[in-house]
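Appendix B, example 12.
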Amino acid sequence: MGLSELFQRILFFVDSFLNYLLQRCHLSANGEYGWKSLDRKTGRLMREQQPLTKKLKLILLFNPLTEWIDTTHLMRLWIHNKSVRKGEEEGTPASHNQIKTFVKTYGINMNDFEPSDIEKYKTFEDFFIRAHRAGSRPIHDPDDPAGAVVVADSRVVTYDSVDETKKLWIKGTDFTITNLVMDTQLGAHFADAAVASFRLSPQDYHRYHSPVTGTVKAFRSIPGDYYQVDPIALQSGVNILTSNARSYLVIETEHFGDVLFVAIGATDVGTVRIHEKFQKPGTPIKKGDEIGYFQFGGSSIIVAFQKGAIKFDQDLLDLSRQKIQVSVEVGMSLGKANPVGKKIS
């Protein structure tokens, strides 16, 4: 037995043992075990609803010892293979049986979606990429091109620079815009960019929307791994966002200059899909337009604005500096264009 196979067997055993132990202790229910979040609609400060098993696994996988082991890429291979298998399972007819329990566990309001009847979804994957009912997510000031909006039902943090983002939130040693897009020229174009980082959990709506109005300038898809995007993982030394599979658009706008939109896959997400029409440079796009969707699992989106181009909403900035995520919905206000932003080349 090789070292790779041995390590994968150990990880499988630990994963199975944690599930068994917590079920025996009646601790496997989805409680508020996740990172601190403030619900923007209600003002309630809480911890994200998350299985305790997942919390413990994250602590196990993303600690200094495991990060050292990960230099061999064995953990990365195990997570990748597990993600691919999970994605395949969620596309089978048998997975339909999970939907009812999932909706009840996470308190998902199906009146926000079309169709609202869970029996209309043939597989869990169909349910996972469910669409919003028209009007359930109004777009903030839809006719104002100088306003930017939230791109996904998610938890968001916003920072005025990449350096501040790295100091407070994304601790991977390789996190730069250049490494994120694998392009030195584009990376330089977004030097010291302002960053909004959106994180989606499995219970969230997993379609994503344009933050701004403009024209598609560039599209690229980059293959990669499927690491977790939980805050525990993001604040470890593992280079999550620059390792995971991702696709990006550059959107040219009148008021913000160029805006970078990066959709990043994570654990159990087999595909990051950008709708075909938005893969073509020159295509007009309006804020709130659906850009694409993730398949099953957690996932993340980075939206970067050129230096000085945006003033993020103050509530988002204040809470992000306290390392508190804000629970938001598609179409909510994200920020306004700075007049100075027009001078950015």
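The radius of gyration is 20 Å. Residues 249 and 273 are 12 Å apart (CA to CA).
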